[in-house]
Design goal:
Acyl-coenzyme A:6-aminopenicillanic acid acyl-transferase; transferase; seven-stranded antiparallel β-sheet; Peptidase_C45_hydrolase; transferase activity; alpha+beta
């Protein structure tokens, strides 16, 4: 058995929305794939996604063998767990997705306002610490069924209701921890490896892909953007290495169009984006001595407030408004910065509103996961959304209850 741990992060209570589990997996990649697939099949209702034709499966199988050999081994274990031949080209064995409903190849309009992230300048931090923070903001409902206005299936789980923190301890490659939602094998929210490389992700509606599309199988080729976390954390120690790995590969946007903040233990930081007009892979780097903020517009297109369109500042969850709020709050901070500063700063754009439409947010949208980290230590601190409490008088804000922070490290 490759599974060393599979248990709840905390004791769930009635009314708690997020019910995270902590999974620690160790062994060969084939063993890891087999055991995670077994958990997925038995505990999360995972079903493998079929390819449109064996041609896609064959080409992708060869792609993994040539570019990411450890994924080829992972896939063998996954296929075996589901009773398929290890060399099957009928099903996508690189995806253990769960709790996504009514995905469509044609995609759907998700709007543009969800998550936020930041990197504070180590040049101004206490002891040169590399401090990061992020909010995962999403609709705590059955998706994409709710967005499409369809009837919710009986027994369906909400998006991000069953998050997982998966720690990989492979025989080959760097150890990594990924705090994810709706995916066991290739997690994609926030992750860190033993070298201090950190990846996050935010929705980028200006990306090149189909929001709401299935995360694997079908006509997928190369790797999908949600697989970057696991791949880069396993093989890269620095931002420069991650950039080179990305540029050598085919990255396809499925499930959600995303841009990917990448930060390493030296303070190098960038946001990987796919340009909507050209399809080019571009990197928006942090400027020395300055923070780097990422919300839900392409940073390479709108790098600073003077490039932003006009906005209504009462729309507090608008992607450009959040950037302005973060920058204004940052300008009032006094260095040297600490991890508490990263937490306090990201909390200025915490998503919890009474009137979501007024705030330019999804109906009922909440910060479902809040993360902070000092990358000089290979660990992350995570807390999750539990429930609403009460409206905050005189504001459009809803007070909500979050879990304590839990620390995951090596």
């Amino acid at each position: 058995m490759a599974i060393l741990k599979n248990e709840p992060v905390y004791n769930f209570k009635d009314g708690d929305y997020c019910k995270p589990h902590h999974i620690v997996v160790k062994g060969s990649w084939k063993e890891i794939g087999f055991d995670l697939a077994t958990i997925g099949k038995n505990e999360y209702g995972v079903k493998l996604l079929p390819y449109y034709s064996p041609l896609y499966g064959k080409a992708r199988q060869e792609y993994w063998a040539q570019n990411w050999p450890h994924v080829a081994e992972l896939q063998k274990g996954v296929l075996k767990a589901f009773g398929h031949p290890e060399d099957s080209v009928e099903f996508d064995g690189t995806n253990l997705s769960f709790d996504w409903y009514d995905c469509m190849r044609s995609g759907l309009d998700l709007g543009g306002n969800t998550c936020s992230g930041l990197v504070l300048p180590p040049e101004k931090s206490e002891g040169g610490a590399v401090l990061v923070g992020r909010n995962l903001d999403f609709h705590p409902a059955v998706e994409w069924t709710t967005t499409l206005g369809k009837k919710v299936p009986e027994g369906a789980f909400g998006a991000c209701e069953r998050p997982v923190v998966v720690e990989f301890q492979p025989e080959e490659g760097y150890r990594s921890i990924i705090a994810s939602t709706n995916e066991l094998l290739m997690g994609y929210v926030d992750g860190i490896n033993e070298k201090g490389l950190w990846l996050s992700c935010m929705h980028d509606p200006a990306g090149v892909g189909a929001d709401g599309s299935p995360p694997g199988g079908g006509d997928v080729s190369g790797l999908v953007v949600t697989q970057l976390h696991q791949l880069l954390l396993t093989t890269c120690a620095t931002v420069e290495e991650a950039k080179e790995a990305i540029l050598k590969n085919r990255v396809m946007q499925t499930l959600m169009n995303l841009h990917i903040p990448i930060v390493d233990a030296t303070g190098a930081a960038t946001v990987f984006e796919i340009d909507q007009k050209t399809g080019a892979y571009v990197f928006a780097d942090r400027v020395a001595g300055e923070p780097l903020f990422s919300t839900n517009h392409p940073v390479h297109t709108y790098p600073t407030p003077d490039t932003f369109p006009d906005v209504d500042m009462t729309e507090e969850h608008n992607t450009f408004v959040r950037q302005i709020m973060l920058r204004e709050a940052y300008s009032k901070m006094t260095p040297p910065f600490t991890l508490d500063d990263a937490e306090n700063l990201i909390n200025t754009v915490h998503c919890s509103f009474v009137d979501s439409v007024k705030a330019c947010a999804q109906a009922g949208e909440r910060t479902l996961t809040n993360i902070k980290a000092d990358l000089s230590k290979p660990e992350i601190h995570v807390r999750w959304y539990l429930r609403d409490v009460a409206p905050v008088p005189g504001t459009n804000h809803m007070e909500d209850k979050m879990s304590d922070f839990y620390t995951f490290g090596f």
